[in-house]
Amino acid sequence: xxxxxxxxxxxxxxxxxxxxxxxxxxxxxxxxxxxxxxxxxxxxxxxxxxxxxxxxxxxxxxxxxxxxxxxxxxxxxxxxxxxxxxxxxxxxxxxxxxxxxxxxxxxxxxxxxxxxxxxxxxxxxxxxxxxxxxxxxxxxxxxxxxxxxxxxxxxxxxxxxxxxxxxxxxxxxxxxxxxxxxxxxxxxxxxxxxxxxxxxxxxxxxxxxxxxxxxxxxxxxxxxxxxxxxx
Length: 231
Ligand SMILES: O=C(O)COP(=O)(O)O
Ligand SMILES: [Mg+2]
Known about the structure:
Low-confidence stretches: none
Helix content: 25-40%
Largest sheet: 8 strands, mixed
Number of domains: 2
Keywords: Carbohydrate metabolism, Hydrolase, Magnesium, Metal-binding
Enzyme class: hydrolase
Number of helices: 8
Bound molecules: 2-phosphoglycolic acid, magnesium ion
Cofactor: Mg(2+)
GO molecular function, one term: magnesium ion binding
């Protein structure tokens, strides 16, 4: 049986969106996959330290892509920074000075990105930055808005791990719920959108589940079971 790598989003995928409470059966199923010999790697808009800690306590593969692709944590004192905080801060200042109700979200410390509350029109901010010739990535995870450096997203962040661990796209199964997961879907042969994803996100996935978040993860693993026995 082939070793697979699961690239798994956190919020809205294995947690109740917004609250952060883990769906324990889904986490248990992911731990079981890891024990069977597969990789289970969190790829999240949270800090990479949060993703890494979840892997330690949850019993999955100890490496995480966080900050929406901007930062990879491979050990407690080993972080690979792919994004550049300064350009994100500059874009943040411009957005804040020109659009109302723009505020930073209270999150664990970031090394490469700015995270905002979902309290304004993101398309308006995109238009504003375009007019000012500032090219950053603006995205919505349904949990927060993110400002990332140009070219930084979950797909480019995860690609670094694929290179590092010599993982082929053919063996990657991505699971997610929001627009920030689409770049990850694009670098994975199999991509799974959960029932709580928008129609746009679903249209970018190779498989669509009907159940939401953690229940949808269990539904997906059930469907994939025939190709996932012990390695
Ligand atoms: O945007 C966030 O901070 C978290 O979102 P994600 O885990 O669904 O990527
Ligand atoms: Mg999510």
